[in-house]
Amino acid sequence: MKISLGIKDKHIQFGEKANPQNCAIARALKDKIHNLDKVGVFPDSVYLVVKKNKKTSAFKAALTKSTSNFIKRFDSGLPVNSFKLNLNLRPVSYVKELA
Question: Are strands 36-41 and 45-52 parallel, antiparallel or unpaired?
């Protein structure tokens, strides 16, 4: 599943530093995917758990170096700009990072 995501100024402003479930990218994902149950954004990957019609599906997407740099700057409290993020979400059987 591929999604295009806008990381907007509102996500950056209200995102929590060093919080994989509520950082700027996680907040943008919550806005975009309405049946999102869990999210975790880490410097190298994004993990999602989606619930739809009582079915739970887990996904993982690798992040680019530029996105990893955004996360490191954001978590350090340095200035960051809004940007577009394209994710190629691949199904996974279990997400231990979100357990």
Answer: antiparallel
Give Cα separations from 65 to 21, 33, 98 (angstroms). 20, 24, 22
Averaged confidence pLDDT in the chain: 93
Q: Is 18 left (phi over 0), alpha (psi -120 to 50) or beta?
A: left
For 10, phi then psi, to 5°, come to -65, -35
d(CA 99, CA 79): 31
3-class DSSP state for residue 35?
Answer: coil
CB-CB neighbours of 23 under 10 Å = 25
Q: Structure pTM?
A: 0.93
Cα separation, 1 vs 3, whole angstroms: 7
Amino acid identity at 1: M
Q: Which two tokens stand for residue 57?
A: 């599906």
